Amino acid sequence: MSNYKEFRRRSIKRRLRKRILRTMLVVLLAGVVLAGGWFGIKQLGLLPQGGASSSSSPVSSDPVGSSQAVPTPVPTMPPPQNDLAAANTTDADWNRMDYAVRTLNTTVQGQDDGTTAMDYRLAGQPSGTGITELSYFDGVTFLGDSLTQGLQIYTTGLPNAKYCAYKGAGPQTVVNNTMAKRTDGRQEIPLEALVASAPNQIYILFGTNVLVRNTSYDGFLAYYSQMIDMIQQALPGIPIYVQSITPVRPELKRTSPGLNKERLQRINDELAALALSKGCYFVNIWEALADENGDLKAEIAQSDGYHIKPDGYTLWIEYLRTHTEYIRNVAYVPGTSYYVEQ
């Protein structure tokens, strides 16, 4: 009897040891599987940032009300865009704030009345860290009206540049392929002449002739927009600099109501928005020619109040030379700093 009891006791102990060994083996295998799975998930980047805990992860509800933890998405930087909405600036801030970097995917904020919220004073091409040699303009074609003709005929301008400049012209002259007269009396179709000049860069200035009457300027902007489209189609990839409408003397507000300072500044806002939305540069030459009141400087104004004396073109050219985009192989004045290529 004692032998049977001893045999039963030993049998129970053997079965107990086997159960314990099986349990330990199962636990060990489960630990290996869990560790391997966690490592694999971590390697695949499927864990939320900050660890595997779901307590900090957002929870989304499915249609039947159950909740499931989802990984926290990795934050990404938004694409660069120009925020060119009107800033709360004072006159003392004009052209002294940091300029937005021009990008080809610029979006322009609008207002409820359909006009732009842009301030042209802050949207202009910023001054660079170098001064271009005058030879830079040998590859430039200037497109514009009689104000642009002054660049061609005065020695204080840029007589070695190329010109498609016509007295009394506006953007509609280009769009409608109207015959226009050059300074030498020859007539030509502006867009054809522009393409034939094979420019490296194009500088445009229109507005004064078209805006004499105090009527809606929507048509002017519509023609300007279509003109840029036509130029970009005819000369793809050529940089275009849209120059601001120039300031005028204050007395023109009485004789030519459309050429008052406040109206021209509003139109420059729209013109800057148009230029940047089409991937062009906007150059605020108003800044170079206006006095502290925003009027054309008296000492450079012709008797008609909006054309410019030769000394005014010196200011104009110096402004252009310091407000160009970096271009490889362009010569800069020795001793000045150079642009850093982005």
Give a structural overview.
With 342 residues, the chain is α/β, with parallel strands linked by helices. The protein folds into 2 domains: 1-51 and 69-76; 91-321, 3-Layer(aba) Sandwich (Rossmann fold), CATH 3.40.50. The chain is 35% helix and 9% strand. The protein is built from 10 helices and 9 strands. The strands form 3 sheets. A 5-stranded parallel β-sheet has the order 4-3-7-8-9, with helices on both faces. Strands 1-2 form a two-stranded antiparallel ribbon. Strand 3 (140-144), helix 3 (146-153) and strand 4 (162-165) form a beta-alpha-beta unit. It is elongated, with a radius of gyration of 35 Å. The relative contact order is 0.12.
| Distance linking N and C termini | 98 Å
Q: Treating each run of at least 4 consecutive H or I residues as one helix, how many helices? A: 10
Q: Give the domain tally.
A: 2
- What are the low-pLDDT stretches, counting only 5+ consecutive residues below 50? 49-108
Assembly classification: single chain
Give the percentage of residues in beta strands: 5-15%
The CATH architecture of the largest domain comes to 3-Layer(aba) Sandwich
| Strand order within the widest beta sheet | 4-3-7-8-9
Task: Identify the CATH class of the largest domain.
Answer: Alpha Beta
Query: What's the overall average pLDDT, rounded?
Result: 77
- Helix proportion range: 25-40%
Features:
single chain; 342 residues; alpha/beta; Rossmann fold; 2 domains; two-stranded antiparallel sheet
Which SSEs are present, and which pair or pack?
Elements: H1 2-43, E1 59-61, E2 67-69, H2 120-123, E3 140-144, H3 146-153, E4 162-165, H4 171-175, E5 180-181, E6 187-188, H5 190-196, E7 201-205, H6 218-234, E8 240-243, H7 252-255, H8 261-277, E9 281-283, H9 286-289, H10 310-321
Parallel strand pairs: 3-4, 3-7, 7-8, 8-9
Antiparallel strand pairs: 1-2, 5-6
